[in-house]
Design a protein that fits this description.
It is a single chain. This protein has 4 helices and no strands. By secondary structure, the chain is mainly α. The protein is rod-shaped. The protein has a domain of 102 residues: Four Helix Bundle (Hemerythrin (Met), subunit A) (Up-down Bundle), CATH 1.20.120.660. Helices cover 76% and strands 0% of the residues. The model has no long low-confidence stretch (mean pLDDT 86).
């Protein structure tokens, strides 16, 4: 056998991990790992909250639109009561207060692709403006205009998705 034969050579020494010294982690590395863990948790919590908030936002928008329409209808009904009592100034004021929620609801419906309902709300708004002008002229015809507006809003509220 020759000197170059690997079978005759002495076995290679295997390093013993028990004797190896573990170097401690630097404080900067510990801080970086802690910061990374917190960042991952924050991003995960944000993503979870964002994904679960979308249905709530749609429900809130529908509720807000319904609230605006109900507010306008309440003002119109108050105007009708004032007209029955021949209080034209109070009736005109109630009809004036009904305009902003109707206009805002109409815009919100157009943005939400509810054009058919928005057209009815616009018609109710037109009736309210005509009724307000008639109430300012001390005409009892304002009551019929307010009644038409109230009927239109009742139709819209019944067709509005809940």
């Amino acid at each position: 056998m020759s000197q170059d034969d690997p079978t005759l050579s002495a076995p290679a020494t295997i390093p013993n991990p028990a004797h190896a010294k573990a170097r401690p982690m630097s404080p900067l590395a510990k801080a970086a790992l802690g910061f990374a863990a917190v960042a991952v948790l924050v991003v995960g919590a944000w993503a979870y909250g964002r994904s679960s908030a979308a249905p709530d936002a749609a429900a809130a928008d529908a509720t807000r639109m319904r609230m605006m329409l109900l507010d306008a209808r309440a003002q119109i009904l108050d105007a009708q009561l004032s007209l029955y009592a021949a209080n034209f100034g109070n009736a005109a004021q109630h009809l004036e207060y009904a305009k902003p929620p109707l206009a805002e609801a109409s815009n919100a419906m157009r943005e939400g692709d509810l054009d058919e309902l928005a057209t009815k709300v616009d018609a109710a708004l037109q009736q309210v403006m005509t009724g307000r002008d008639l109430a300012a002229k001390l005409s009892l015809d304002a009551n019929s205009r307010a009644g038409e507006a109230s009927k239109l809003l009742a139709e819209v509220l019944s067709k509005l998705p809940r």
